[in-house]
Write a structure and sequence with these properties.
Elements: E1 6-8, E2 11-23, E3 32-42, E4 47-56, E5 62-71
Antiparallel strand pairs: 1-2, 2-3, 3-4, 4-5
C-alpha cells in the first residue's frame, strides 16, 4: 500500500484503505472485510499506534476498531 504521511505538531499520520484488512474465520480462505488503517507516530519518539477501523465486523458483528502499538527504528 502507498500513501503520504502528513506531519502536524511533530506527529506523523498516514491513512491507508486496505481491501482485505480484517480476516474472518480461516485466515487464508475466510471472509475479508475492508479497513481504514491510520498509522500515527511521534517524529522524535518514533512510538506510534495503528488504528484499524471497519464498518462491519465478522459474522454480523457491528463495526469497530482495533488499535496496536508499534515502534520505529532509525537506520
Amino acid at each position: 500500500y502507498v500513501g503520504d504521511a502528513r506531519v502536524v505538531d511533530d506527529r506523523y499520520t498516514l491513512s491507508v484503505d486496505v481491501p482485505d484488512g480484517l480476516r474472518c474465520g480461516n485466515v487464508y480462505y475466510g471472509l475479508v472485510i475492508p479497513t481504514r488503517d491510520v498509522y500515527s507516530w511521534g517524529a522524535v519518539s518514533l512510538q506510534g499506534t495503528l488504528t484499524s477501523s471497519f464498518a462491519a465486523g465478522c459474522d454480523g458483528a457491528p463495526g469497530g476498531a482495533f488499535t496496536y502499538p508499534f515502534s520505529l527504528v532509525r537506520l
